[in-house]
Design a protein that fits this description.
Strand content: 35-45%
Oligomer: single chain
Number of helices: 3
Helix content: 10-25%
CATH class: Alpha Beta
CATH architecture: 3-Layer(aba) Sandwich
Order of helices and strands: HEEEEEHEEEEH
Number of domains: 1
CATH topology: Protein Transport Mog1p, Chain A
Largest sheet: 7 strands, antiparallel
Radius of gyration: 16 Å
């Protein structure tokens, strides 16, 4: 399916994403950043990085990429060969950087090297216990669709982190099929 012929499917994606945002007013599970755990920084070397604790939905498996990124792919698929995957990462929050500043940097990063990227802001998703809500945006290119959720969380010692949870798909069909699994991750974070 060409990008142009997928426009109506993408409109459905936007509608679905908006409904997703509305349906999150009762998140109940607790969230956590594990603090610094050992991760691979470059092939052959290791360092420590904060790791957000997320649960893999049924039918998905979890693995670690460089820099503490948690990747989720469907059972039987490999990260570099799939048309859809989800990722999560936590990065230390500098005291002087606001969530709005970090979101602006993320949106700018989503457009670098991708002419014609369209950024669509979505409503915030409330989290349990009055924690910072998820702030969402969707980025679309002719090659992919990415739904980006960002919040601020702390580890058990009270250190603040930006937490990112992404859904990345090559096609509108893969995006729509994966959206319920992404929703499950956000609900349990």
């Amino acid at each position: 399916m060409s990008f142009r012929s997928a426009l109506s499917a993408k409109r459905f994606i936007l509608f679905t994403a908006a409904l997703l945002a509305i349906s999150f007013d009762a998140m109940t599970a607790s969230a956590e950043v594990s603090g610094n755990g050992p991760v691979t920084c470059r092939p052959g070397s290791s360092c420590t990085a904060p790791i957000p604790i997320i649960a893999a939905p049924d039918g998905w498996v979890q693995g670690r990429l460089n820099y503490g990124i948690t990747a989720l792919v469907r059972n039987g698929e490999r990260f570099g060969e799939t048309k859809v995957f989800m990722m999560a990462q936590a990065r230390p929050k500098p005291a002087e950087r606001s969530l709005a500043d970090d979101m602006a940097m993320e949106q700018k990063g989503a457009t670098i090297g991708e002419p014609g990227t369209r950024i669509i802001h979505l409503p915030k998703l409330q989290r349990a216990d009055g924690k910072e809500p998820f702030h969402l945006f969707l980025s679309e290119t002719p090659q992919s669709i990415r739904l980006h959720a960002e919040t601020i969380d702390t580890d058990r010692l009270g250190n603040a982190y930006f937490v990112y949870i992404w859904l990345l798909a090559d096609t509108p069909e893969e995006f729509n099929a994966t959206l319920p699994h992404y929703e499950a991750i956000l609900r349990t974070y």
